[in-house]
């Protein structure tokens, strides 16, 4: 009987050793990102001494990671083998699937990129900004190509960006299907549904391992179709008394198409705001993925001259990214001044981790008198990922032997595993693992084979992997506690202080006069230390920093970052 079974508690596999050299004829699958998090998706396939990469994305930092721009997958497991890489398959053009490519190509620029037309256009434009001209290989659904020893077949999938592909990978070891990101919208705007007949055909052939998107596995039932958002969007346009500002991902071509269609119906003109929005919509329109009626989209200068009732602005920043147009408008730090009677439409998802930033924006706009419409109060967003019901259909159509849930936090991976088991897949064949755990496929049979490094690589400005967790801890302490610099002038020969200690503080808050007591405490410590040890400059610096730190912590419950500079005379 197929009873509902609950998935076992998450298995960490923290103690696993590095995998042994891969046996002849076997295929190794190593996820380097996207398992245990939403973002920086990347999986490496190894067979006959060659590597194939599927996706190479970024993860966006959270509030506790100040100053970090993006987080990359850890390339250290493949760094010494970049010459063996036969290609990078990009399943679709979202940042969490393509954003890491420029950093990987910095290490080897001529790795061929294999992707659909729109995905290639997006990644090529991105690489141009990094001054990299990639080698590309365009594919479409139905294509079957060889990349080294990997036989690849591409299948159409529906998602929140056009031209998404799933990829079937055949080797002597077996058949693997990777969905990329997908959902099963039966009425997508472009009529391009997820290729369920293709899935069924692969199911008949026998899928040995199924890598499947988990993002919405804990959402019950089925997603509504994209086109069902039209009435709610229309309602916004019908009732908005002044300007309408729409925020969406710069890649959500279908959502933006719906906004353009509504603008046309209601006689408004549209302006695109933000570099990535302007660039991507230009590409999508040029390639025929976005239909822009003549004269609908106008330059910002022309738009500003129109009455407020005729204006629609489409901008980025739907996740509350501080530098994006939407955040700056909310902070009154943008030429577009949102106020009384304006309508702000957040036609986008709420990615876990971004909640605070988004609610801050909603509150700010509301305070300025704007009406904010979002997925919490109107049907203006539908997710791009298959929910539990759709996943169940998928498992029943494919009947895979083994399953590796990908793309999700632990709760999503575990929920996806539970659905797989409920459809009858053997519990031992459902691998809930995290980044770095490798699975070997030998003659169609999958098992865990080891673990490689899969750390978060932090990118700060243009430096990659230099910022560390320790640096982030310092930044958090600086933000909460401030900093104190102590300057001490010391006579080299005697080690005695020749001037009173000086304190310089930033962001450190304490009652006036604390420096006097602090100086006395430090001087006492120096005096008693002098009797027992000889001292050099570094020792004195350490002693001052420690003494001050201990005193502030005990007496004032403060832990600022302390820097001591000793100058010898
Ligand atoms: Zn996606």
From TrEMBL:
GO terms for biological process: rRNA processing. Ca(2+) binds at residues 67, 69, 460. The keyword RNA-binding applies. It holds the Pfam family Lactamase_B. Its EC number is 3.1.-.-. Zn(2+) binds at residues 92, 94, 96-97, 159, 181, 407. Binds 2 Zn(2+) ions per subunit. It is not clear if Zn(2+) or Mg(2+) is physiologically important. Keywords: Calcium, Cytoplasm, Endonuclease, Exonuclease, Hydrolase, Metal-binding, Nuclease, RNA-binding, rRNA processing, Zinc. It comes from the Bacteria. The active site is at 213 (proton donor), 385 (proton acceptor). GO terms for cellular component: cytoplasm. One of its GO terms (molecular function) is RNA endonuclease activity. InterPro entries: Metallo-B-lactamas, RibonucZ/Hydroxyglut_hydro, RMMBL, RNase_J, RNase_J_2, RNase_J_b_CASP, RNase_J_bac, RNase_J_C. Coiled coil: none annotated. An RNase that has 5'-3' exonuclease and possibly endonuclease activity. Involved in maturation of rRNA and in some organisms also mRNA maturation and/or decay. This is Ribonuclease J. It comes from Agrococcus jenensis. The gene is rnj.
């Amino acid at each position: 009987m197929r009873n509902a079974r609950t998935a076992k508690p998450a298995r960490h596999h923290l103690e696993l050793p590095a995998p042994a050299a891969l046996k002849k004829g076997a295929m190794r699958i190593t996820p380097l990102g996207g398992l245990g998090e939403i973002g920086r998706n990347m999986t490496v396939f190894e067979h006959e001494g060659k590597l194939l990469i599927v996706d190479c994305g970024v993860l966006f930092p959270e509030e506790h990671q100040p100053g970090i721009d993006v987080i990359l997958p850890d390339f250290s497991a493949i760094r010494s083998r970049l010459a063996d890489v036969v290609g990078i398959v990009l399943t679709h053009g979202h940042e969490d699937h393509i954003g890491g490519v420029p950093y990987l190509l910095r290490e080897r620029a001529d790795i061929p990129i294999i992707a659909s037309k729109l995905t290639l256009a997006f990644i090529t434009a991105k690489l141009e900004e990094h001054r990299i001209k990639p080698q590309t290989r365009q594919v479409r659904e139905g294509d079957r190509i060889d990349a080294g020893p990997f036989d690849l077949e591409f299948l159409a999938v529906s998602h929140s960006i056009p031209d998404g592909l799933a990829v079937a990978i055949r080797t002597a070891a077996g058949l693997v299907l990777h969905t990329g990101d997908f959902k099963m919208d039966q009425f997508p705007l472009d009529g391009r549904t997820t290729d369920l007949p293709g899935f069924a055909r692969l199911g008949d052939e026998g899928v040995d391992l199924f890598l499947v998107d988990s993002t919405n596995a804990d959402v019950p039932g089925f997603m509504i179709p994209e086109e069902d958002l039209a009435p709610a969007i229309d309602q916004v346009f019908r009732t908005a008394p002044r300007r309408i500002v729409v925020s969406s991902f710069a890649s959500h071509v279908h959502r933006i198409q719906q906004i353009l269609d509504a603008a046309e119906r209601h006689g408004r003109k549209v302006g695109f705001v933000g570099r990535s929005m302007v660039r991507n919509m230009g590409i999508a329109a040029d390639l025929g993925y976005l239909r822009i009626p003549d004269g609908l989209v106008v330059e910002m200068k022309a738009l500003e001259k129109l009455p407020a009732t005729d204006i629609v602005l489409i901008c980025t920043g739907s996740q509350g990214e501080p530098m994006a147009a939407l955040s700056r408008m909310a902070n009154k730090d943008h030429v577009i001044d949102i106020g009384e009677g304006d309508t702000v439409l957040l036609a986008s998802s709420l990615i876990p981790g971004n909640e605070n930033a988004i609610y801050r924006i909603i509150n700010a706009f509301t305070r300025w008198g704007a009406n904010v419409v979002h997925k919490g109060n109107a049907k203006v967003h539908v997710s791009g990922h298959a929910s539990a019901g759709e996943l169940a259909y998928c498992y029943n159509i494919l009947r895979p032997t083994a399953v590796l849930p990908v793309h999700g936090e632990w709760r999503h991976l575990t929920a996806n595993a539970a659905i797989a088991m409920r459809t009858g897949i053997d519990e031992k064949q459902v691998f809930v693992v995290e980044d770095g755990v490798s699975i070997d496929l030998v003659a169609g049979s999958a098992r865990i084979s080891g673990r490689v490094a899969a750390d978060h690589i932090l990118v700060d400005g243009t430096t990659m992997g230099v910022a560390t967790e320790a640096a982030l801890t310092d930044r958090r302490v600086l933000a909460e506690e401030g900093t104190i610099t102590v300057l001490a002038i010391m006579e080299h020969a005697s080690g005695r202080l020749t001037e009173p200690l000086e304190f310089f503080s930033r962001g450190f808050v304490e009652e006036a006069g604390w420096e006097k007591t602090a100086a006395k405490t430090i001087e006492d410590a120096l005096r008693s230390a002098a009797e027992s040890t000889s001292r050099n400059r570094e020792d004195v610096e350490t002693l001052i920093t420690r003494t001050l730190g201990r005193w502030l912590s005990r007496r004032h419950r403060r832990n600022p970052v302390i820097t001591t500079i000793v100058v010898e005379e």
